[in-house]
Amino acid sequence: MAAISFVLLPLAFLTLLTPHKAATFTIVNNCSDTLWPAAVPYGGGIHLNSGQTWTFEVPSGTTVGRVWARTGCSFDDSGNGHCETGDCGGKLSCAAYGSPPNTLAEFALNEFSNLDLFDISLVDGYNVGINFSPATASGSCQGQQCAADFVRQCPAALKAPGGCNNPCTVFKTDEYCCYSGSCVPTDYSRFFKNLCPDAYSFPKDDQTDTYSCPAGTDYRVTFCP
């Protein structure tokens, strides 16, 4: 997961971590069109009409997870097909990440200090607006949103059917992809940042875009908030 960094903890410390229940994720399609939301490593994928919800559980301790919307999909009765954005190997139930452009809700559950870490990332571009929030917000446990009109405002070089690509997807250079581990904001990343200040705009975006809640929190991901 591009937006969150993790550290390996000594085994003796890990044994002190308090076990927590699985987190319930509720996915809401608030868009006017049908979506095919996807979630890995748990959840897979589903057909979701406008106004419908999808609920699944993610075990405590899941270190890398993501949820995204797929658009423009067509699947046969066996769950094989293709999506215009977010396609995951032509399968309705995803076991792999989606193809850009797709707006990402990323998370890691019960990490250091018994906290869940989560963020919205535009490192794979943008296809659908998203709100990623705890089911019950309180104190510093708050949500985030990215619902700007990227598709209409997308720079010509980044335009894609159904969405707006991140420059790394298009140019595949160290300047935009941070292959060397050290890179700085660009005009393209600033375009994403200006429209969605709370979202990751490039792989080495600052850590203020990662939010946290106590382990055991349930979450709600709303598309077209």
TrEMBL record:
Signal peptide annotation: 1-22
UniProt keyword Signal, yes or no: yes
UniProt keyword terms in alphabetical order: Disulfide bond, Signal
Pfam entry (one): Thaumatin
Presence of keyword Protein transport: no
Disulfide bonds: 31-224, 73-83, 88-94, 141-213, 146-196, 154-164, 168-177, 178-183
Similarity comment: Belongs to the thaumatin family.
PANTHER family listed in its UniProt record: OS03G0233200 PROTEIN
Name under which the protein is recorded: Protein P21
UniProt organism field: Dendrobium catenatum
